[in-house]
Design goal:
439 residues, alpha/beta, 7-stranded parallel β-sheet, 6-stranded parallel β-sheet, 15 strands, globular, Glyco_trans_4-like_N
């Protein structure tokens, strides 16, 4: 089987990094086409040996991109197309149908209550999404929370498959030597109390609340990894609060490890240097950074995190849900400071979100997609993979696992319930492995 992943962009972001990690664990050859912005993640994919093509789409209304995309898919003779992020889902599903692709899958990575990937959920946005969704074979939700939102929109439960994001936990295992070295490289006092956060610096992440909270705790430091339009405002806020020497805005950091020269710590090393992790966002579709922090043995304070909130409390005993206010966060952090730095064992939730499990569950969805092809496409045997001209320049069951249907029944299939083989994909592997970790 030959698969194509279509994504809106390949700058640094949760969906983009998750795609890169996932492709390391898929058994079939996969190409990636990005509509826009072949950024840092594109470089990482190419380093992994994945073919990455840039369509050069000029904007949401660049309708000329549709025939170019359909022609690329047809000439590439892909058996399956998997789309990621809103714009790619709208254009990619339609192009795949025009190209006669047998199976079309889309993953919904970032659907909130009031916005999708930062854009307001207007009636038009929702209508366009639903029109495109009907053209596919299956829709993947990264959490039960997202699945419930899709059902609320009117997507049939039978078309929704919950496949959570995955991590490679071994990357995030705590190491005392790494902790000391990372603190030294980032200019942190060896015994300082260090609060951490990871994510795009955009208003929805509410990192201003985190800056205010840490500024209110004399002696505490904040390591904030990520970049975005709010960076200058956060730097200004830290100065206004007299805490610029304790608020460290680190910019984008690699979730897979340190820089090649070893001089710039990546996310795993930064998590080693922290004492507590905070996710202040009020809207999340999954909460991958929280799971990575738990894999590093950190206590976690979060406002919302479906990856944790959708499970029984004993799956993540180190995580504590708090309200959105600054005062409550300050009080919670003060309690952590008084308790002193401590590392926790990786909780059961880390094993549940092992990337090898995620890859196996996704293969089950692919099998379903082949058995129920997208509308208007004949159920002929999959075409033989082969090169074509390029018209575009450039492990065991988890004790916390729920039943085979989503919350409240409703008949929604849960990936992993079926064991059918994907045509041409070869045998599937779910062996135990040390499990880390736009629009």
């Amino acid at each position: 089987m030959k698969a194509l992943h279509v994504i809106t962009g390949l700058g640094v972001g949760g969906a983009e990094q998750q795609l890169r990690l996932l492709l390391r664990h898929m058994p079939m050859p996969c190409d990636v086409l990005t509509l826009t912005n072949p950024g840092q993640v594109a470089e990482g994919l190419r380093a992994d040996g994945v073919r990455v093509v840039h369509l050069g789409m000029r904007g949401n209304r660049d309708l000329g991109a549709l025939p170019r995309l359909a022609r690329f898919i047809r000439n590439g003779r892909y058996d399956l197309v998997h789309t990621h992020l809103y714009r790619a889902c709208v254009y990619g599903r339609l192009a795949a149908r025009l190209a006669g692709v047998r199976a079309v899958v889309a993953t919904e990575h970032s659907l909130g209550e009031a916005e999708i990937e930062g854009r307001p959920l207007t009636g038009g946005v929702r209508a366009l999404y639903l029109a495109g969704e009907r053209l596919g074979s299956a829709t993947v939700a990264v959490s039960d929370t997202v699945a419930a939102r899709l059902e609320g929109w009117g997507v049939p439960a039978s078309r929704i498959h919950v496949v959570p994001n995955g991590i490679e936990a071994a990357r995030f295992r705590f190491d005392e030597g790494t902790r000391r070295a990372t603190r030294a490289r980032t200019g942190l006092p060896e015994r300082a109390f260090v609060v951490g956060g990871v994510g795009r610096l955009v208003p929805g992440k509410r990192f201003d609340v985190l800056v205010r909270a840490v500024a209110a705790l004399p002696g505490a430091h904040l390591l904030l990894a990520g970049d975005g339009p709010e960076r200058a405002a956060l730097r200004t806020l830290a100065a206004e609060l007299g805490a610029q020497g304790r608020i460290h805005l680190l910019g984008e950091r690699d979730p897979f490890g340190d820089s090649p020269d070893g001089r710039t710590p990546g996310i795993p090393a930064l998590l080693c240097a922290m004492d507590v992790f905070v996710s202040p966002s009020k809207e999340e579709a999954f909460g991958l950074a929280v799971v990575e922090a738990l894999a590093a043995g950190l206590p976690v304070l979060h406002v919302t995190c479906p990856a944790i909130d959708d499970l029984p409390a004993d799956r993540a005993p180190g995580a504590r849900r708090i309200g959105p206010g600054t005062e409550e966060l300050v009080a919670a952090l003060r309690g952590q400071m008084e308790a002193g730095a401590r590392r926790l064992p990786a909780p059961p939730v880390v094993r549940r979100y092992d990337i090898t499990r995620t890859a196996a569950q996704l293969l089950d969805v692919y099998a379903t997609a082949f058995s129920t092809p997208n509308p208007g496409t004949a159920t002929a045997p999959a075409p033989a993979p082969g090169p074509g001209p390029d018209p575009v320049a450039a492990q065991g069951p988890d004790p916390g696992t729920a039943s085979a249907t989503g919350p409240g029944g409703g008949g929604r299939p849960r990936a992993g319930a079926a064991e059918a083989a994907v045509p041409g994909a070869g045998s599937r592997t779910t062996a135990d492995a040390p499990a880390p970790g736009g629009a």
